[in-house]
Fold each of these.
Amino acid sequence: MTHRTQDIGFEHSKISRLLSEESGNILLPDFLLNLSSESMRTLSGGFFEPREVTTVEAELEDAVVEEPHLNLANTTIIDEPEPIANVVGNCPVVAVDVSSVRVGESEQGLLYALRGALVWREGLSYNFTRCGPLAFHLNDLIARSLSRRSRANDSISYSAWSPLSERLLSRLRNTLERWMQRLACSRLSRGIVLLDGSLTAGTPDNPTVYLEDILNRSRENGNAVIAFSKETKLCFSGKKITRLLDKANYPCLLNIDRIITPQFPSAPVRLMGRVYVAKLTSRGLPFRVDIDRQLSEESAAKAVGRLINSDIVEQGYPETLRLAHILSTFTANEILAIQRHLSIDYGLKLAPRLSFRRSLFGPYGTSTEAS
Amino acid sequence: MKKGLIVQVIDIQFANLPGILEDILRDVMTEDTIQGCDYDPFNISSQIAVLKDTKILICKIRGAIEDGKAKTETSWLPSRTTSRIVPYSIEKLASTRNGKRPVTLGRTRSDHLTVDVKMLDGKLNIITGKKGVGKSHLSKLLILSLIQNGAPCLVIDVNGEYVNIGRARNDEPTAYADKITVLKPGHSLKFGLSEVGLKTFLNTMIYALDLPRTSSKVFSRIWNELERSGNLKLNSLNDAIRRFSCHESVREAIYSRFNTLMDLELFTDDISERFDFGLFEKKMNEGHAFIINMKDEHAISRRLVVELLISKLTEQLSDMRLKAVFLFAEEAHFYLRETYWEDIITRMRHLGVFTTFVTNQPDTVQESVYRQADNIFMFNFTNEHDLDAVSKVAKIDAESLRSIVKDLPAHNCLIVGDIVRDFPIVVNVKPLDIQTMGQTRHFFQD
């Protein structure tokens, strides 16, 4: 026990160095910083149409949907969920989340902003480091530039990138997210790394190589990587898999990996985590949870037990990850602030919004257009 | 500027931007529970801070500038897209410093406000605000400015606040001390029956003491008989009432009221003790302020004195013996009978009585006064009921008035009306080197 406490103390101070200003240069990859600057330089004044933000707009964040929709037949027999065993002692917990948001449109492309948050629990207190916002002007010019850069840089495999501006955002977002996840896994030892989403990789915008690297580093440092999906498209008998734990009124873990894995027989999409449905508190919400596949099932279950003991879990969701999400998410006010930044620093002029419906039909356009 | 719309800022609020609540909630939620830092390479977060503190100015259109001249009416609107917003000093609009009788009322946010005291001439004015915010102070400033310019003032001082207006803080007489006379009813202010006259005396009996009409007719007969015989004196009147042949109940009604009046010691047969209305007339025409100190006076005495003075003033003004009088009436509801309000703002105004009502109870001033007022000096009010009452003024919209008045600090007043050329303006009233406080008695002397 004494040995563990000393270990944790050491690791806490190590991760706390993320707070220091000197570490700024490692929090964001130079590549992204340069790309942001480079892309914004392609704005040559002119007009831009800012994204209209209102208080009633519930979902500002542009979610990147990658998870394939999968409906599992009910011929499969589902195991009973295993109760999550209480594990004595706690460990450091770190969580990473990244948000992206569309800020507006220029005459040449789309304007986006990215921000990432890294939150860790140290003793009883929570700490964070937040990176960004980074603004990007995504257009064909930048896409071509990225393509050239990826060929020149072997260490980072951007070679799969295509010059399609509409795909650039999810790639940039993944790049930042994986970078911060790698940082967390490298800085933490014998702890739990919480990620947002799943441990699925192999799509064009989410190369396997990044996630592999993250998981390898994590294992080297004795960490367990657990990913929580707020939304899942995996269904069983026409219902979301999270409904499988409807009747469970205790903290439990249901391994559904053996019925999921056969659906992904080979590359490119790879499930790099073992897939579970987990309910971390008796009255909490169930989530799809992916745990590093290289960990034994026993270790995975222990990691979940340690998480419950080491972090506050409200409504079945770890507080560290919740804070990371809250801190990274853009509010409407922040979008306005970024628009103001673009206007001041890049001389963009706000273009009056042109609605074809409104122009054509005046007040007789549809209600959504007229509002 | 050749052409422009004049808008006045009436309120400053935080802008209710989309997402601001989420931002604030996040800050509150995390400030105690989570520590950390932001790595913001392009310093975009500074814009977030700017936005969070963004304020919105609530404005009202007050007029327009056309060919470089300010007008309070406007019939056009500027372009929404190409117009520019430029700050414009309100003193340029409201000030009448080029008038012949300039007086500096105080400071606005940016400059001194100087107005022409002539703008009080022929006008009906109201000074109102809650207790202790500086109403009497402004009133004194106006009185001093008026006598400095040779104007006659009559001050009905209910609380004895004006008695030291002629003395500096160091207790030395000021330059205007000889232009100020303080009168105390029953002491330095006593009247003779013949000067007062039947009409005034009878009105007092009826309105102040509720003498029944039938009894008043009997009293008139008694008075007329004594007047015809040249024996109109207090003792004679007393005897005549007791001896006059009438019903006992009528006699009792008259006698009890007569005794009440006598107890007030406002009347005298001694010529040397009587107030000299001739001298009053002379001094007033030279520019003088008479302060009627009614502190601690009985309610009937107050009403009686005011009835007598106004009646006398009306007479002197009608005969053109007096040019005009600036009447400062503090808490007029204490002594002004119902029928006088209308009279003051119509008939007496035409005769030359220019009244300034000073009150901390705005609902006691009749609505017609607010509607007819030419100048309104409004200090702070926070009570909704009071704000409702003052909102009836015709010179400014209720929204502006409520918005400005409820946030006014002490000694700051919103001035509306002719004196500021109908551009509402907030002024911090300038201090005076006089003993501004009345003779308030205090228990704690340190």
Note: Residues 23-370 of chain A form one domain.
Amino acid sequence: MLTLQARFRPNEKEVAAKVLDEEAIIINLSNGIYYSMDKVGGFLWAMVAEGHSLEEILAAIVARYDVSLEQARADIERLAAELLQENVVLASDHTPPPREHPEPRQKVAYESPQLNIYRDMGDLLALDPPMPGLEEIPWKEPAEGSSG
Amino acid sequence: MPEPSAPSPPVRGGEAGDPPIPECAPTVTEMHAAFARATTLCPDRFVVSSYRFAGHEVRLRIVGRDLAAQIGRPFAHLEINEKVSPTTHLTIDLWDEEETGIPCPVTSTDTFGSGWTIGNGLTTASPDGRYVGHQLRQSINWLDRKAQHVVGWTASSKQLSLYERGKPLHVLLSVWYNDRDVQMVHAGLVSKNGKGVLFPGMGGAGKSTSALACLCAGFDYLGDDYVGLQVLAEGSFVGHSLYNSTWLEPEHISHFPSLPPHAIPGTLPREEKSLVLLSHVLPKRLARSAPISVLALPRIVDTHATRFRPASKGEALLALAPTSMLALPFRTGVRGFERLARLVEHVPRYWLELGRDLSQIPRRVDELLAEVTG
């Protein structure tokens, strides 16, 4: 059962993720399922990726958004459970440094975060399992003019 | 009967001379030996040509004139007529058994005890990742990533599938390109006055329709489903053409009447689309590379008009990343994802909403380019 003291980290062995302008895009490279979350969801993912506990995330959301403590807690616990179930995050015991983000002067309008799940590529991968990425070869010369 | 000594093979624009057979796994050594026998036995069928793939020199040496013609056509726009330099970055040696009488010395690519089904083929790799093999119905090809050398057998050029004729060596080249930091992405690409418009999107989003509409309206064409993406040292992005092939869907036939006369129909059960090699249709509009100036995310809408509107970075990444990372033969992993994220962060992005009047697409794309480049 989830507690507010729980911490998580992205499942980096299988997942690639990025937050762009508060939109989180997450791809599970092993099963092809991908996800998106925007606004509050993107903010929440960024904090999860930093390793903050659900309690710290709750405090940050309540400080930033115009939302009751009860509503925010329910949404955070729901979303955390979903992310765990999807194997996108794993439990963590790493404590990150304190988060230093200025609180906005005026609270931002709140929308319950939703984890959008896309399984279309997952069905494709079930038919054709991925070929493992081939490791960087030790003899590889850096490509000229390229920054990777 | 002793084998005749081989005269120098006919070479277009390059110097004759064989690179030494690299020290490599037994299976691949046998393939190289079989290729060498083919060149010795059939010097009159030995064709050499040179290309530039994403700026890298590539030499194609094929024993089998029909095979050389089939394999060379999708790369025709990348051919160069310069002397082959010592710094060739990839040598591709192929032979046709029907034309040469030399059979394949190995029965499968399952040399290392593991394999993955990709599309209709079986792919395998050596434990150290140096050798990558790909086997289709009637061909077996091996890539030596250290020596930058492909060696392959085809049973007969007449038995090549439409896929092999339109995208030769797709799986192995995706590995080779990635080793050169050129990532295959699932997108179309056109350009005008040296400014590239990338059309990322899932299957059915309208990538091909958008790219072909622009081609027919005078844009330069680089691809309609897969192109190479490279990040340059200064942080800008370049798109590279990989093939000049396109697959014609039924709805394309009426919209692009210049293409169907050049369509090559499929013969196998799964070959529902026809192949068109654009080097036969509009050779002067085929470009090798273009800087990417804008991302135009195609989306089919139920309106008459085509229009564009800004897209978020997240929307662009969602349109580009899943199929580019999951549907392509070679998985680029987190590094590839990071590269795509950088692209959508730094290049302007718009939705291109495709209405029923496809003639409006090139005009909207022109306006889009004017909007972002000033």
Note: Residues 26-179 of chain B form one domain.
